[in-house]
Design goal:
This protein has 342 residues and is mostly helical. It has 2 domains: 7-235, Rhomboid-like (Rhomboid-like fold, Up-down Bundle); 251-341, no CATH class. The protein has 13 helices and 5 strands. It has a 3-stranded antiparallel beta sheet, with helices on one face. A hairpin with a 2-residue loop joins strand 1 and strand 2. Helix 7 packs across helix 8 (187-206), helix 7 packs across helix 9 and helix 12 runs antiparallel to helix 13 (296-309). The longest helix has 24 residues, at 12-35. It starts with 11 loop residues before the first helix and ends with a strand.
Length: 342
């Protein structure tokens, strides 16, 4: 089959829509980086915006526009030995068949991805997410090498997040709809049931006890297991307590230790040590840090507010909140020797 079967047919209007899709897909990540907000929520917004474009184009087909993103960006296994189609390996993870497909993946990415990002940090979260859709795509290509049907969706990535979470923090409890209830379930139970259902559905298809399906169950398993296998290598040994380890750390004890350390530093804050009187609003922020500083995002928020409300105790200069190795601290803009706290 001619590898130029689609690109050679593109018109100027098609390239216009390609630019629009790439713009709305990347814009949330630009703002997440600029504002230092959650990459997981940026991914959710990116997937939503791309699907809005898909919906608009499908709704307007045969009327104004005839561009079909799936034909250009969907993963088609039989084409994947041609370098001209390699982009499909990545772009397919941003496309969905319908709103049910899109929202089901977005739900998992939001509920599993946000707490996992708080564990991993943004950079490692993106690596895990990428491994998810890479593992899903590889599994689908290897099991359906001659298929002409486009495979699309972020399901492999969503299962990849769950696989990485299961590998490193299986006892964490996260809010998730399971067994007809929305409540805080342990990650290992969510993973056990979701993967078990996928395996059962694959067995039903192979044994001929169920009808045909357009759901790529093998891609789900591929994403889960590649991320599961790779997670500890990515995370290394940073606060990992894996399922079955005798050294598993009680999360409440870890939070208590963080709180105790932070409380000690707040009691010996650099403003008091340098003889400066704390205004009421500064004392209030420090108290909030003491109460809520064990949570990464709230710690960051209160440190940013503290940076706006006070000055360097050494030079009276400006201070800023910065992220160093996923830990937020305050520093003096003139010199780290003046302030590097807590």
């Amino acid at each position: 089959m001619d590898e130029d079967w689609k690109w050679s047919l593109l018109e100027i209007s098609d390239f216009f829509w390609i630019v629009i899709i790439f713009t709305v897909a990347l814009l949330p990540f630009f703002y997440a980086y600029k504002d230092k907000t959650s990459v997981a929520l940026g991914m959710v917004l990116s997937l939503l915006l791309v699907h809005f474009i898909q919906y608009f184009l499908s709704f307007s087909q045969n009327n104004i526009f005839s561009f079909e993103p799936i034909e250009i960006f969907g993963l088609i296994p039989i084409f994947m030995d041609e370098s001209l189609h390699f982009h499909r390996f990545i772009t397919a993870a941003w496309l969905h068949a319908d709103w049910v497909h899109a929202l089901s993946n977005i739900l998992v990415i939001a509920l599993v991805g946000v707490p996992l990002e708080q564990r991993l940090g943004a950079k490692k979260w993106l690596i895990v997410y990428s491994l998810g859709f890479i593992g899903g795509n590889l599994a689908w290509i290897f099991t359906h090498p001659d298929s002409l049907n486009p495979a699309i969706g972020a399901s492999g990535a969503a299962f990849g997040l769950l696989g990485a979470y299961m590998a490193c923090w299986p006892e964490d409890r996260i809010e998730f709809p399971l067994l007809f209830l929305i409540r805080a379930w342990p990650v290992w139970l969510i993973a056990f049931l979701r993967v078990g259902i996928e395996i059962l559905q694959i067995y039903s298809l192979q044994s001929g006890t169920s009808g045909e399906t357009n759901v790529a169950h093998m891609a789900h398993l591929g994403g889960f297991f590649l991320s599961y296998i790779s997670a500890k290598i990515i995370v290394k040994n940073h606060h990992i307590s894996a399922y079955g380890d005798s050294s598993m750390v009680d999360q409440r004890e870890m939070s208590k230790q963080i709180n105790d350390d932070l409380s000690m530093q707040i009691d010996n804050n650099p403003w008091t040590k340098n003889g400066l009187k704390l205004e009421d609003n500064i004392s209030r922020i420090l108290q909030k840090l003491r109460e809520e500083g064990d949570e990464r995002e709230t710690r960051r928020a209160w440190l940013e507010e503290l940076a706006e409300q006070t000055i360097c105790p050494i030079c009276n200069g400006e201070i800023v909140a910065v992220d160093r190795n996923d830990i937020y601290i305050l520093k003096c803009v003139k010199s780290d020797k003046h302030l590097n706290w807590p």
